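Our platform keeps sequence and structure together, in a single record for each protein. This encoding replaces a full spatial description with a residue-level series of whole-number codes. We quote a single record here, exactly as it is kept in our systems:
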Amino acid sequence: MNRRDFMKLTIAGGASLWLTEVSYARQTGRKKPNIILIVLDELGYYELSCMGHRLLETPNIDKIAKGGMRFTQMLAGGPVCAPTRCCLMTGKHLGRASVRRNSGYNALRPEDITIAQVLKKAGYATGGFGKWGLGGRGTTGVPEKHGFNVFFGYYDQVHAHTFFPSYLLRNSEEVPLEGNTGALYEGQTYSHYLIFEETIKFIRDNKDKPFFCYCPWTPPHGLWGLPENEPAWQKYKDEKWDAGHQIKKDDAQRYAAMVNMVDRQIGQIMDLLEELKIDDNTIVFICGDNGGSTYFKNETHPDGFFGPNVNPKTGKVFRGRKGLLYEGGLRIPFIVRWPGKIRAGVVSNHLGYFPDIMPTLAEIAGADCPESIDGISIVPTLLDEKAAGRTQENHEYLYWEYLGQTAVRWGNWKAYRPKNRKWELYDLSKDIEEKENVAAQNPDTLNKMIKYATEAHEPHLPGEVLDMELCMKDHRKTKNPKPWEQRRR
């Protein structure tokens, strides 16, 4: 089955599912399902209390996982912020994505179609709140030109390195933050509070129509500034932890507080859905954006003080971290809840990654997807195959590239080539920690996966920088783009 045939099948399946939803809507007076997609910046696979974490407390996310489906093998689109967001938004893997670098201002191309455009065309109100990362002001990638009715927060991810910026952006217009100078740790107005308030407002304002609420929230990404009266900070600030490699002596406590803070806010969103009586007609996704970072590591905690890639029950470690294409750079928490549609308490081992989100949301919304995407809808896994009307299609392979690294996943096989080094091969069914390179013992398997990698890669064509001065205004402390990081008009 070729890609075009598959997309026809997906669209047909979406139409079939939508007929069911139309019937449901007519019987109950409800509309197309609302969609909330919450992406927490750098939240590690094991940094949830439902995963047995010893210090971090996430009771609201735990409750959502208990009431929905938790995935063990839904992987990031890339190992760092901007590339992984590009895969999520466009349904393309990193061999064909517009944004493959992490400079902060690299942009989508004008012709790129995003999830927001697909859903907007299907009648959805579309709002984004947090860190965009797919094109700063003065580029072809601004969110309001890629399907969002409103986007509030940071466009350039370097701008997002402080929680006390002097301004945020709403549809490219500056919104001054009172009492802030742009200092990394201090200010009068805490940016994430405003971003959360705008999230809540969008949901309230659109409760009577189908909406897509995209929340690429910055916490718990550093630097870890918090208001002194933040309840989660009060909970953790006096902990006497032996954490290493901190810029400030209490950064580890601040990190824990940020995780607890966003968990509280997610609970508030779930309470709001019940208050507005739209809970059972809203599908909620919660995930990380890429593999965990080994923050605050020391001799006692070589994999980071909070061990984002360390199984607290077995001690086994996903190799690597954010920025690398080993499992530690790609494994993310991924939880989905839809009352009455997704069975509660299910743990799925389905293998997928961020490009799958676009076709999944399109099918749920009864919308058409571009034919050029690499993702495959996971609706049969979410709703079960009987409800979806077909079996779950699986990827022939999954593909990643980043800064000279390449990785391919084929079933339980993982091929990885570090920059300027030879290919490595791991059997993840026996070696989840990627310790034993079995490339020499399995040359046929490796050669097949190398062919997949060659097939998947296309030349990189990023979006354009149209106004360098405006672009650099938001992009603090960086040099001008390198020639290959922009296209001239």
